Protein 1
Amino acid sequence: MLLLPWEPPGVSPYIAPMARLGSWIESHPEGIYVKPADAWIDPSQPKPKAMITHGHADHARGGHGAVLATPETLAIMECRYGPQSGQGAAYDETMRIGEVDVRFVPAGHVLGSAQIVLEHKGERIVVSGDYKRRPDPTCACFVPVPCDVFITEATFGLPVFRHPETGSEIDRLLHRLHADPSRCVLVGAYALGKAQRIVNELRQRGHHEPIYYHGAIERLNQLYESFGIDLGELRQTAQATKMEMAGHVVIAPPGALNDRWSRRLPDPVTAMASGWMRIRQRARQRNVELPLIISDHADWDELTMTIRELEPTEVWITHGREEALKHWCMTHQIKACELNLIGYEDEDS
Ligand SMILES: [Zn+2]
Ligand SMILES: [Zn+2]
């Protein structure tokens, strides 16, 4: 099914509709199809040719015929799905795919994450994937690429979402840790990206004690280290005694926070690192005692700042809270519409 990405509002029968931008790119429920390249971006179904923005499971699925992604994203996919018949795309290298010039540019979201810049017949479309603008020591910084059409995520596309400074959230964590050396602080953080970022941010704040981790994070920790990200001394909880973990930070996937596994920990203070922790109710639902507002997605200010900076003629919005951002674009004389892609899920972002 072909969904028109944008219909001009209020076109009277006497005015010819303007030529629509991006007529060579199609939005389907299972992903974005780039016609003149005969390739899909982040499809949720197996496709013969897939260009992948980053390794999160809602964007990178297994089973594609051929994958074009950064070497880091390919490595993450191989770690999850086994060998990929793929091609590594270094940042900023332009490749010709069919009749489209394609370039992967850093998105600042997780290791290897990329925006995909597409150029065809003088028109430039940027597909952001997921992104953030604040510094993250575990991945390359977002690079703004001015464009005609910007396809943006809007996971936190409401003015209520304003993420605080990461450093101050990490300091709250450390303060809590030092307040009671008989307990540990158990931080829920998703396994790809957030977990390694929390560890690295702790190191940057001068915390050099061993950090304990749930076994489910081990392979991704190793993968990050293999790409040169320093995580310091890590120990797996399965090989530690309860006593020895007192006074230390423990990192686990969010799903493990309230399960049997956590009983082996010394009276944990349950924390969770996510943009959703801005919403108290979400923290309560997960029995989170120490909500840490640390996100790998742009907050409201970062979203609007980015659109201002790129000055696109049109903005197409994916991932959730599209309405407010669409309205913001309209009031800034930028055409905007939502793309109804299914399967994008950022529950623990
Ligand atoms: Zn993501
Ligand atoms: Zn996403």
Protein 2
Amino acid sequence: MLQENIPSVPTERESEKGRVETNNGTPKLEARIPSGPIQEQWDKCRFEMKLVNPANRRKHSIIVVGAGLAGAAAAATLGQQGYHVHCFSYHDTPRRAHSIAAQGGINAAKNYRNDGDSIFRLFKDTVKGGDYRAREANVYRLAQISLNIIDQCVAQGVPFAREYGGLLDNRSFGGVQVSRTFYARGQTGQQLLLGAYQALEEQLAAGTVTMHTRSELLDVVIVNGKARGIVTRDLVTGHIECHAADVVVLATGGYSNVFYLSTNAKASNCTAIWRAHRRGALLGNPCFTQIHPTCIPLSSEHQSKLTLMSESLRNDGRVWVPKKKGETCAPNDIPENERDYYLENRYPSFGNLVPRDVASRNAKEVCDEGRGVGPHGLGVYLDFADAIHRMGLQTVRDKYGNLFEIYQRITGEDAYTVPMRIYPAPHYTMGGLWVDYHLMSTIPGLFVGGEANFSDHGANRLGASALMQGLADGYFILPYTVPDYIASTKLDPVDVSHPAFTSTQAEVKDRIKKLVGINGKRSPDSFHKELGKIMWDECGMARSDAGLKKALARIPEIRDEFWHNLRIVGGDDELNQALEKADRISDFLELGELMCLDALDRTESCGGHFRVESQTPEGEAKRDDANFSYTAAWEWKGPGQAPALRKEPLTFEYIPLSQRSYK
Ligand SMILES: Cc1cc2nc3c(=O)[nH]c(=O)nc-3n(C[C@H](O)[C@H](O)[C@H](O)COP(=O)(O)OP(=O)(O)OC[C@H]3O[C@@H](n4cnc5c(N)ncnc54)[C@H](O)[C@@H]3O)c2cc1C
């Protein structure tokens, strides 16, 4: 029975001409990676790009959806170049984008510490940290651009932490042995976003950028095969509106909220990328999600949000659990010889700074053994006693004070005197819309930046790399590649009277009417919660063939009930948060199924994707490079149809494939 619900996956074959084709005969994905040595590829690419004369720029319009780090940076920079930019956000101000929540820091290969860092080392750490499932060319470019990002942000006045002498300070994050993380206490995202916001404000004042807040993208409009606009809903009035442009950029963030409980802002969702996917944009590696090891453990069934404790805490905090199963003593009463500092013991080279996937899996393992701590046994200690002894209370307070305060407010415990309790939680999605080297999706004219694209992190993102990627995309890559597209593409004049806008708008209106008209009994949240539990149980920290098949059987049933038994209070022509949620959940119900399908298809373990059937004798993730060195890119084939799998082969010329070891 279960099998019937699982769509079959078309595989690839060699065509007679030697070209890799899917069974449907469609050509392989073209990543447009420049030729030549990796160090020169981005320079070469930029040199070969076409430019738009400054006088002609004002004739072109660009829609940027998203005003987080990636979107605000892109909109501000393209506006500064002279294009007409329209920036959209469902928030009431760009400053509320989820980027503001980022705590720990942003990586850059500045080597200010003179501890052996270099562009090449950041490149290597990121490829290795991502378990060799990222595109080498993109990662190298990211490492190169990391240097510019810090200069840009310092010039904007972002108050990065400084050492006593005035130089920018650095700390370490997981998966690396150098200190390359720039930070602003535990509020790095907030400070970076304020920098990007100021740049955006400057362009708003200059009139090059128009901001559309409380405006949610509900569809992408395709005219003659190119992205030429969007359909939005005004979240205050309910109006469904059309907007036309020459290019559409999506910078709409990640989809960890598919798990219901995650560290993401409650409103973060997948609607923009999913609707683009339904219009033809392929979705890359949807099952690659990151479970962050240091979050405050769940305390109640009714909780709707999880809170991150920044990974930077692992610089000085020591992770441990009692050696004895079912230990009931208070942590400070457990003597040293009865504690298991399991990360330090198992991974002596990296200790508490192993990458997130490794730290998360190990926490799950010790809790599964019955050695977890806290009310539900789903927690491990993160202990600062040694750090306080070594550096003094005030230094620890200066470095991490606001994080300790967050912890205290949520748990009521003082982590300066009692070890924190932490447990892994969904945090980041490495999957997203597939993009080429130019950050263009498979729909011409539709570009994707930041967490919304799949690009640079492979199967596991190293900490402090998302801010780096979002700002690299927004400030330094899209401002080259979008103009190149404009300069080299014939763009016929199109406005919102075009039939493609009328029909897409009608489809959006129908969908909204349908949602409001179901008039069933269950709240949107109840469906989301049910989906989230299945996703966490079967497509979370560990995935198995049987579990994924179970999820793939159950999700369509929940989706079916959703469309027959949903209840939305209120109408569609007013502020209606139940309607907003329901519409987003309808997309999570489709994306969740694709994530499970992708996870089922990838029978290897890699990074954040741990298939229980594929592990080494020591219980570490076991990759299968012979069969899975590719990016999975899924194609929407229509409602009720099996999606098609396309593959972008990954080759590793500069960082030879090897089994990751942090021992
Ligand atoms: C708690 C937490 C801490 C983190 N700490 C760090 C860290 O220390 N270092 C690090 O590198 N990374 C960190 N990350 C990850 C990082 O913050 C995010 O990956 C990054 O900020 C995402 O930026 P973005 O611009 O891609 O998207 P977001 O900041 O999520 O912005 C998305 C934007 O798109 C808009 N939007 C979305 N959908 C629509 C739609 N349909 N219509 C209109 N507008 C839409 C939103 O309004 C918003 O403006 C952290 C993540 C979390 C959850």
